[in-house]
Design goal:
Blueprint (H helix, E strand, L loop, with lengths): L23 H13 L9 H13 L3 E5 L2 H12 L6 E5 L8 H5 L3 E5 L10 H5 L6 E7 L8 H11 L3 E4 L7 E2 L2 E2 L6 E5 L12 E5 L2 H11 L23 H32 L5 E2 L14 E5 L7 H11 L5 E2 L10 H4 L27 H9 E4 L7 H18 L2
Parallel strand pairs: 2-3, 2-4, 4-5, 5-8
Antiparallel strand pairs: 1-9, 6-7, 8-9, 10-11, 11-13, 12-13
Helix pairs in contact: 1-8, 2-8, 3-7, 8-12, 9-12
């Protein structure tokens, strides 16, 4: 029988002002935009300033704002210009927004296995997926935890394969002291509601490669050569621009980013210490030289020790007002209908019709670590507004719930 706590605590949420650093600074810049009367980023200065300052923050040559994290991945893939049927190695655990751009560009996602604790791809799992058709590798730094970038880049460089880093959940995360997004050929970020800096919806792409940066800029702008002597629409592309309103909010948010990240990390470190030694739980693993920036805080739950595992623990935490997410995305991305039934462009099934049969084998037996990772993971909500009393309440709730479910 579930034992209800005598009193639940309302936690700050990243879905509203209780858990987000939004306020006077954003309003001031928004007012400047409105008073200027220039809301398009092609004529204004706020988005351009954001791009310059974001590039400077990461220490890269170029940054361009775009409409979403999905748009950022699409811009990155399009910049590499794959041929139809080319393969792009990616992770089996990711948001669909990081996969559909690959299909839209006529390429085939090839899914790599993951580390069952971090849920990140590894150099070994990527290498097992490479073929003569491999056009690129996408690495996703899940939950704010950096992938093993030294090993991955060594592999990619040995094969001369470009790397796209999906940093949507990992602003200012580091591997061996270096910011994620600066290892690969292109880095992609999201400013969606719950990310470390937010404009509600939005994205940013970065690169040190001048030629690719040019293609990214063009792809965001319908391939129109703004600033060229004789501009034209040079190739097939979309309008992925943001407005000056989003640029202003992002600019104010960027000024707060370091503080936001520091508070998330400090709170996570405290919770990790509070949860140390609880049977059946593993707290987030942080490698030496890495900085985990905690988009979310994830536990691995052993169902041989804790009855009903992550799902059982989530149910008890819900009774205490802690809305966690067991299994994160519930099932690997390749189990969704878009892959299982190949629903793309009309009844064509393109580009799956160009794929090697073996890369379309999504049988469970091929992805044991992916299924184990999703079975074990429990994703706790996280934001920069957690105080000690919130952490103590979460830790106490987890401790008491585990005791109740102990086998």
């Amino acid at each position: 029988m579930t034992t209800m706590p005598s009193k639940t605590m309302v936690l700050p949420s990243d879905q509203d002002s209780s858990g987000r650093d939004l306020g006077a600074e954003e309003l001031e810049l928004l007012e400047q935009v409105i008073r200027s009367g220039t809301l398009t980023s092609t004529k204004g200065s706020f988005t351009r300033t954001l791009e310059e300052r974001f590039a400077a923050t990461l220490g890269v040559k170029r940054a361009y704002a775009c409409a979403s994290g999905t748009a950022a991945v699409h811009v990155a893939v399009a910049a590499l210009d794959p041929n139809p049927g080319d393969e792009i190695v990616t992770t089996s655990i990711t948001d669909m927004g990081a996969l559909t751009p690959i299909l839209y560009q006529g390429a085939i996602p090839v899914f790599a296995e993951v580390d069952p604790q971090t849920l990140n791809v590894t150099a070994a799992s990527i290498e097992a997926c490479l073929s003569e058709r491999t056009k690129a590798i996408v690495v996703t730094h899940l939950f704010g935890s950096a992938c093993e970038m030294a090993e991955i880049m060594k592999l990619a460089q040995s094969r001369k394969i470009p790397v796209i880093e999906d940093c949507a959940q990992a602003f200012l995360a580091r591997s061996d002291g270096q910011y994620v997004g600066t290892f690969g050929t292109i880095g992609c970020f999201s400013t969606q509601q719950g990310k470390h800096m937010t404009t509600g919806e939005g994205g940013i792409v970065v690169s040190n490669d001048d030629a690719l940066a040019r293609r990214m800029f063009l792809f965001i702008n319908k391939a129109w050569g703004y600033g060229d002597a004789k501009p034209d629409h040079y190739f097939l592309s979309l309008n992925y621009r943001i407005s000056e309103l989003q640029g202003a909010v992002a600019l104010a948010q960027l000024e707060k980013l370091e503080s936001v990240v520091e508070r998330r990390v400090a709170a996570a470190d405290k919770l990790t210490n509070m949860l140390a030694g609880i049977p059946g739980l593993k707290t987030p693993r942080v490698e030496p030289g890495a900085v985990h920036t905690y988009w979310k805080y994830c536990l691995n739950v052993d169902d041989s020790v804790i009855r009903d595992g992550a799902i059982g623990l989530a149910k008890l935490l819900k009774d205490r007002g802690i809305m966690s997410a067991p299994r994160y995305i519930q099932k690997p991305a390749f189990m969704c209908e878009i892959f299982q039934k190949r629903r793309t462009f009309g009844s064509s099934q393109f580009p799956f019709t160009l794929a090697r049969p073996e890369v379309l084998d999504y049988s469970k037996e091929r992805f044991p670590l992916t299924f184990k990772a999703l079975h074990d993971v429990l994703v706790l909500p996280w934001n920069e507004r957690y105080r000690d009393e919130h952490l103590e309440y979460i830790a106490e709730s987890i401790q008491e719930s585990v005791e109740q479910l102990s086998i």
